[in-house]
Structures are given as structure tokens and as C-alpha cells.
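**Folding the chain**
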Amino acid sequence: MKHVSARGCAHGLAVGVLLAAAVVDVVLYAGSDGTSVLPGLGTFWQTLAVMLVGLAGVLWPAERRPEWLTPQVRTGVPALASALLTAASLLVHGPVVFGPGEIVILLTLLFIAVRHCSPRWALVCGVLDAAALLSLPVRGDVKLSSDLLGLQMIGLLLVGLVAGLAGYLRSMDYRRTVAVADTRRQERLAIAADLHDFVAHHVTGILVQTQMARMMAVTQPQELDPVLAGIERAATEALASMRRTVGVLRDTGPEAADRRPVGDLAGIAELVEGFATPGQRTVLRRDPGVSDGLPHETQAAAFRVVQESLTNIRRHAADATYVDICLRDHVGRLEVTVADDGRGRTQLPAAAHGGGFGLVGLQERVTALGGRLDAGPRGGVGWQVRAVFPARRS
């Protein structure tokens, strides 16, 4: 609110200065002896007409501008009106007044042209505004002398300063646009990675439980119901993840990131609860010192470590009978460990084994947070994944 209020005050101050300068032109110069260069119009009306065209180009409210009032029209037409008045004054060889109001308006229009017009029109309108400004001294009773050259040098300095500032702000606008587009692209890639992680986890579980159901249909048909319920639950969660992700991808607003299908420490318990198959024992051990107040990105990365590790167990070590997941506070840092006693025997099809990029993605995610990831065989049998994160509180 303070930022918006400050911007509003600055805008109001700028408008006030512009109107005050325009009043100086219209009122203080209305009684001058300037020559009328337009038939039927006195000096006052000539000045007033040019000032009104310029003020309309600068002050016309954005929400009420007609479609034809484009930036090039707003900045080009007032400059042409001013330049035509200057040319007319030369034809009749009589001085025509100009003052600070017209100077400020032309400088403002130059700023608008350089910053807001399309590249081609920015050059055309900017040159028109600059030429109209630099030719103003020719209207007055000033000969081609050091006085005229001095005024034009001052005008060149003002043109350079305003055009340079507008060009700098335009480049900043472009950089900001590129940065926003790049951020959105990275966010979409991250969302796609999230979708892959969730769906791969659930679909792998569906595949394992389906194989188990086929075997149990022959040997233990009376115990099929829990397995089928697990398949149903995994399929439902996979569909929900895809639905959320598609909704996020369709929404490009800033609130889209809040609906990314990421997890947290509480979600790890749900993962573990739905993981075990008959014949497997899964244990989640969480140190009381591990707080739910950890930064969200750390919790999401820890969730990913557990999720990818469990998925890999299903893919590569479905024969594991014991899976241990441990979350603990290790010297002020969050340590996540997933270990199993599998011997690498699996009955999954080769196409379901994955491309080997899961651990690479985890390594990048953990390293980006200042952590460390280690994965490899355990001392006896099985495999262990260990990640350590900085445990800064949010």
C-alpha cells in the first residue's frame, strides 16, 4: 500500500508540474506581441491549440483511451503540430511564443516514444519529438547566433538525458519480460518434473501390485481385496496429480505456483503408509527435533528423496522385505535416509525400469539447496540413499 501510495503521489506531482508549466505558456505569454501565423487565430489560440494537443497525448487516461490513440499517435501528432507552428513562423518571419510548458510536454512525449512505442515507431516518433523541441528557439526573436546555438545545445542535452533514461528503462522492461518468461519456463519444467515423479511413483506401484494380484489370484484369491484397493488408491492419486498439474499449466498467473503438486514432511508419512506390499515391512522413524517449520523447498526436496527412493525400490529391488526411512536432525541439518535389504531382483519389464535420471535430478535438487546426496550399496545387502539439507527455519 505504501508503494502504491508513493507512486500515486509521484504521478500526481508530475502532472501538477506539467499543468503548471502549461499555464505559464498559455497565461503569461497570452499578452505577448507574437505574430499570428495561422489565419483567424491569435497568438493565444495558437499556443493554446498546440498545448491542448500535447496535453491530450500525455494526460489522456489509459483506461479511457480509444483504440486509435496508440503511443505513436500520442507522441507523433503533438510533435507534428509543434513543428508545423515553427515552420509557419519562419514563413511569415514573425516571432511566436514558446515556453516551459511546451518544452516539458515535448520532453515527456519523447520519453513515452522511446520507452513505449514499437522499435520502428520509437525511432520515428522520438526523432519527431526531438526535432520539434530543438526547433523551438527558431520561433523566437533569436538570430542565428551564439544565443540560438546555446539554446539548441541545452536542448540537445535535455534530449540526450531524457532519451537515455527512457532507453535504459525500456531495456530494463525487456530484461524483466525475458526474466519472467524464463522463470515461467523453469516453473513449467519443474511442474513437469513433479508430474513425472508423482505419476512414476504411483504407476510403478500399480504395476507391482498388479503382478502380485495375478499371482495371488491363483494361490490366495481370498486376500486379493487389499491389493486391489491399493491399486485403486494409487490410480486415483495419479489421476489427481495429473489433474492438478494440468490445471497449473493452464493458469499462468502468480497463484499457479501455490498449486504445484509438491510434498512436505507430513506427506512422507502418507507415502510410506501406502508403499508396503504383502511380505514387506516399511518403517518411518522421525526424530522429534525435525520441525515442520523447515523451509518449504527443503521439505519438498526431502519428500522427493523419499519418493524417488521408494520408486527405485519398486523398480529395482522389489524383493526387499524391509525398508527403513529415517528423518533426523544431524548437527543442525536435516538428514533423510532411505535404506532397504533388497538384492536387486525384480520382475518388472525392462521398459518400467526408468532411464536412470531420477538420482541425477535428485542430486541437482539437493545441491541447489546447499545439501549433499549420497547413494550406493549398504555394507551388507541392499541399497541406501542419504541426503543432508541445511535445516534453516522458515
